[in-house]
Amino acid sequence: MKSKYKILFVCLGNICRSPAAEIVCRAAMKAMGMGERVCVDSCGTASYHVGSKPDSRMLAALKRAGYEYGGHRARQLRGTTDGREYDLIIPQDSENERDVLTALSGAEEKVVPMKRWFPEGEKAREVPDPYYGGAEDFDEVVRLLERSMPQLVAEVARRLSE
Ligand code: 4NP
Fold it and tell me: Sheet harboring 5-11: ordered strands across?
């Protein structure tokens, strides 16, 4: 059997945006019958929160949106091995993108910012960092990720059929 298509979401701390993207993406892939063909993971560019669970405010926002927490613990991006292992590496904002491109060696073509899959007419230019915000900012991140996921799922389906 063909090996799984591997997706890595990246933010700064790996406790808010990228674990949310991971959970929302996994659910979307499963709903589209692609759960067995795709492996979804997340990490952070920084080391501050390595080993931590997702931020409780993000877990609450995910719960409000109907998602189950899957036991994720934060880890830091490993430039060389992650660049080799994953097929698609998705930074959440432009700072994450710059840091990912600096850390990776020779896998730059695998890096596509999350905004690529934002729905048409979306005003945000990146996935905003909710860390210093309130509950509504966490809800907004989950909503933006949910609204972007159909476009990402379609792209991965296309890539898998090539
Ligand atoms: P994340 O959010 O990158 O979406 O996980 C943040 C987490 C931690 C910090 C900033 C943003 N921090 O400054 O510790």
Answer: 38-44, 5-11, 88-91
Residue given tokens 């036991």 in the structure block = 71
CA distance 115 to 88: 14
Q: Classify each residue of 18-43 as buried b or exposed e, where b means 16 or more C-beta atoms within 10 Å of its C-beta.
A: bbbbbbbbbbbbeeeebeeebbbbbb
Q: Which atom of ligand 1 is nearest to the CA of 12?
A: 3
Active-site residue, 129 included: yes
State how far the Cα of 138 lies from the Cα of 7, in Å rounded to an integer. Answer: 22
- Identify whether 11 is a catalytic site residue: yes
CATH class, domain 5-153, is alpha beta
Question: 112-126 pLDDT, tens per residue?
Answer: 999 999 999 999 999
- Encode pLDDT of 89-113 as tens digits: 999 999 999 999 999 978 899 999 9
Instruction: Check pocket membership of 153 for ligand 1, CB cut-off 6 A.
Output: no
With beta carbons less than 8 A apart as the criterion, state whether 43 and 8 touch: yes
Amino acid at residue number 152: L
Ligand 1 atom closest to Cα of residue 11: 3
Within 10 Å of residue 17's Cβ, how many Cβ atoms?
34
